[in-house]
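Progress narrative, Year 2. Work on Transport permease protein from Anaeromyxobacter diazotrophicus advanced from sequence curation to structure prediction during this period.
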Amino acid sequence: MTPARAGGRGTALVQYRAVVRKEALQTLRDRRIMFMLVAAPLIQTILFGFAVDFDVDHVPAAVADLDRSAESREELRRLLADGTLRRVEDAASGVEADRLIDQDRAAAAVVIPPGFGGDLAAGRAARLQVVIDGTDPIRAGATLSAAGRFFAGRAQALAKERLAARGQAALPELSVSPRVLYNPRLKTAVYMVPGILAMLLVIVTTIVTAMGLSREREMGTLEQVLVTPVKPLVLLLGKMTPFVFIGLFDVLLVVTAMTWIFAVPLRGPLAALGFGTVLYLCSTLGVGLFISTVSANQQQSFLGGFLFVLPAVLLSGIMTPIRAMPAWLQAGTWLNPLRFYAELVRGVLLRGAGFADLAPQLAALAVYGVATLGLATLRFRRRLG
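Result:
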């Protein structure tokens, strides 16, 4: 190595340290930015963890028992016993039960027609009706599934009782023994909170970075730095570094909170999570820097960050499964780093995945990090020119 090249590298390292120190001090002194970077992700994770809950329980139900027999009362008691449906209103007819749903006083209705108990006692087909409000598909699907399971089980139990009373052998059964891996209780928070972490990181880091560079341009401090011999790449790397460490601290803070508050397991190596987080932050910060280079002021930077974040969240698979999207939209998710980081976080925390298991996600995040930072650097140089 020639002395000139060694001296150039030494100079670049000194410049990098100076930019990192300046950016760190400037960020630490701004209480609003520190609150947004540190406290906001923790608070929002806790709020989202409790608010985003797809576990359907205690659905308000109206009951129209037009038979008023001992059999109808017993079947209603069994149906309401598991807690999926909660009896809130009594209706005198099926029409009144429908009206209670129209008035939003109930989300479901159970209508038992006259003669229900007599049909059961005589061994005839006994029919009843379950009316469900379909405006909320998740709640409606869970209610319909719970009612279907209950009545299928009751029909099988009644058939066994009648066969036993006649002295006949029971029909052969096909039993299923499900075994649920990774989330045995099927709790929503265990699945959603790791994805929420990925969502909050992209919101905070992208928008804060985009607005930060635009703010310096408006205040005139960026021009003062540009008259120095600091190279654009060194300047952008120096500006990113403090936010990378803050992002890693956020992840550690939020992971601690989610394991303690929401009982999210921590099965995989933290090293894989930390390495993936660094690559992911390079992508989000690179996007923020790129947005700032194409924006004239902070308002444009904020709008540009929002226009990136919203599609990234919707196409990440955090809220809705990617496989449920149209094929042409699924192809677009491959360009979204948020998708791969959400898969990485869930893989490490829930499935105990390591570096070998997460190689595709890590490779994708590395490519996106290099690409976004390279685009931001090129755009920054052109703007200087």
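Residues 59-165 form a domain with the abc type-2 transporter like fold fold (CATH 3.40.1710.10). The mean pLDDT is 83.
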